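no rush on this but wanted to send it before i forget. theres a chain ive been looking at and ive put its sequence and its fold in token form underneath. please have a look and point out which stretches look like helix strand or loop to you. thanks a lot i owe you, the record is right below:
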Amino acid sequence: MTIRPLPVLAVVIMSVAAPSFAQEPSGGSPVSAEEFEAGLGYQTGTITLEDGLATLHLPETFRFIPPEGSRRLLTEAWGNPPQAAQGVLGMLVPRDTSPLSEDGWGVVISFDEDGYVDDKDAASIDYDDLLEDMQEGMKAENERRKKAGFGSMTLVGWAEPPHYDAATHKLYWAKDLNFEGSDQHTLNYNIRILGRRGVLVLNAVASMGQLATVREQAAALPAAVEFNEGHRYADYLPGKDKAAAYGVAGLILGATAVKAGLFKALWLGILAFKKFLLVGLLALIPVLKRLFVRKPAGAAAAGASEP
């Protein structure tokens, strides 16, 4: 199949190891894991996102962390740089598992206001062909990534084949990825909810070993998230509202999450064009790996940091 250039393409959030915890916020005294977690601001029940954009009806199995708590979890506990938390509307974490534990995982929520995504292509997408194109593109880019200081990456396959519900305008899929030098595969579990002005993005941060758990618990999330009146897919006004320059296939390739400024320092030469071929998209994947990697045990305590 032919992959057309897409404007400001995105890649998915990923993680390759369990989080470690050693925290001295703002140069202050160390805090315990219990104290840190108590300050995340857990919420349950019905949650309103972004000044009325959407509503979460949380299943009993999940807790919500507001934007500030999500920022602290992503940066201070999981060791990501501040840019990693920009635009995050909140996170969902399992109710019975601490996000600071070895088994901890979470779902990062954001909104990409790229416009209305026309879903007419959904019924005609050959996901096997799409997977093959993505795998070939990754192979072609590995040498380029190595020159940029990143290890190679392999898209092993679909951990969960893409599925689009045309009635609810909700999409989910999962990828099985393997990074050079890692004996643990990375899980990218993705949920996209199409709306009038853009797409709600839910990305699970977990390892492949947690696929069964993520699949079971995340299955309830699409039905639990709804755009509010005025922001729904059906509220789109043709000719007046902005339309995205890609369809459902573009969402799977990763057309919504990268913000032009997020990787400006690292990828200025690429981002300056505002358009990417598939190979350009794949070149950015290792950068997101760096942004959303959980430090190995002991790294935070030793003062390790990402370049």
About this structure: The CA atoms of residues 178 and 185 lie 5 Å apart.
